[in-house]
Structure formats: structure tokens, C-alpha cells
Amino acid sequence: xxxxxxxxxxKIAMGLLSFMPxxxxxxxxxxxxxxxxxxxxxxxxLLKKDEDFIGLIGIxxxxxxxxLQHLSVNPSFRGEGIGQExxxxxxxxxxxxxxxxxxxxxxxxxxxxxxxxGSDN
Length: 121
Fold this sequence. Notes:
- This protein is of the alpha+beta class.
- It has helices at 10-17, 26-38, 82-93, 106-112; strands at residues 2-4, 42-49, 52-61, 65-73, 98-101.
- Helix 1 (10-17) crosses helix 2 (26-38).
- The radius of gyration is 14 Å and the shape is globular.
- The N and C termini lie far apart (31 Å).
């Protein structure tokens, strides 16, 4: 189940964000969380399986597209398609918007796209 971030999930969200590559200082994690809490165009979602939060996905919403800012899966659940599942759930939430990636998330998004028939990929 994909749940919209709320303040009571702050520590869980920071923990999941810390699994992302790059700057993982507490200050940086707090800056990201603050942005999701205060900027209406930035939305953060957590994926809950049974009683555990196992993934996180964060986007910045524009007029015609949203940008995948953060995507993180608990290492215990990696390789199970959780990241792809979250991307698909977001696309279902925003069917009229394109999904674009950042330097950090674009490669993963490319892997999520269905292979076109007749292509060598």
C-alpha cells in the first residue's frame, strides 16, 4: 500500500532516504524531509507491506510531468521489484503526467519502461 508521507513517518522516511546513494548526512536528510513537508509540489510516499515500511518514493510535480527525486527500498527487499511497483503505482496516481528522472533516478526509470516490440533491448 502506497501511503502519503505525514510527520509521524519522519524517522522511517529519513531511514529509507539514507539508503540512497550520495549525501546522507542527517542535515541533508532533514533538508529533504523539510522540503517534502513544506513545498506542495514535492510529494513523498512510503510503501507499506504488512506492518513494515519497505520503500519510499518522492516526486516534484510540475504542470505536465513529475520528476522522480527519490527512490529507496529497504535492502532486505531489494531485487523483488519493489521499486518498479512504486513507480507503477505513482503512474496510476498521475496518469496524465509524464515521469522524468534526475541524474540519480533516470537510470532506474529507464529499467522500468516496457521494452518495445521489435527492439534489440
